[in-house]
Amino acid sequence: MKIKVFTLLFMVSVLFTWSLTAMANSTIEIVFNGTDVTSEFSTNLVGNTVFVPIESLNSRLKFGFLVGSTPNLIILESNEYTIYLTIGSTTMKKNDEILKLKSPPFAKDGVTWVPLRAVAEGFDSKVVWDQHTNLVSVITKGKVEK
């Protein structure tokens, strides 16, 4: 009987520790060019895609952005690229190239959320995801200012 109780307590403690570890890692950290900018970003994990508010991303990538002539169109501009995204659409246009998105941009509570990897790579930044630490690392290709 003592062995069963001990085994049960051990298993409960292991499950409790594992669940605390999983909860602790639910925060997504974001690093730009080696600088931790997690506090500057709200994040939203949808499926396997990290979304960020477009305004937060602009503070780091420094692109020009505006909402297009239709409310769902997002236009992002740098010296080299113009990127077109449409809320709810899984396609992104980079200059004249059409690219497929894993998850579409969306709007929620007045905030426009865009897929971090797709937009950063659209401006030729390198993006690395560490699933064990929930860390997104973005290395920009120099200035993208317009």
Structural features, described:
The structure is a single chain. By secondary structure, the protein is of the alpha+beta class. The strands form 3 sheets. The protein has a 5-stranded antiparallel beta sheet with strand order 5-6-7-8-9, with helices on one face. It has a 4-stranded mixed beta sheet with strand order 2-1-13-12. It is globular, with a radius of gyration of 20 Å. It has 3 helices and 13 strands; from the N terminus they run αββββαβββββββαββ.
List keywords for this structure.
3 helices, five-stranded antiparallel sheet, alpha+beta, 37% strand, globular, 146 residues, four-stranded mixed sheet, Cu_amine_oxidase-like_N, single chain
Strand segment count: 13
Order of helices and strands: HEEEEHEEEEEEEHEE
> Beta-sheet strand percentage?
35-45%
Mean pLDDT: 79
What is this structure, in a nutshell?
With about 150 residues, the chain is α+β, with helices and mostly antiparallel strands. It has helices at about 1-25, 55-60, 115-120; strands at about 30, 35, 45, 50-55, 65, 75, 80-85, 90-95, 95-100, 105-110, 110-115, 125-130, 135-140. The chain has a 5-stranded antiparallel beta sheet, covered by helices on one side. Strands 2-1-13-12 form a 4-stranded mixed beta sheet.
Please describe the topology of this protein:
Blueprint: H1 2-24, E1 29-32, E2 35-36, E3 44-46, E4 49-53, H2 54-61, E5 64-67, E6 73-77, E7 82-86, E8 91-94, E9 97-100, E10 106-108, E11 111-115, H3 116-122, E12 126-130, E13 135-139
Parallel strand pairs: 1-13
Antiparallel strand pairs: 1-2, 3-4, 4-11, 5-6, 6-7, 7-8, 8-9, 10-11, 12-13
Signal peptide: 1-24
Domain Copper amine oxidase-like N-terminal: 32-137
Protein name: Copper amine oxidase N-terminal domain-containing protein
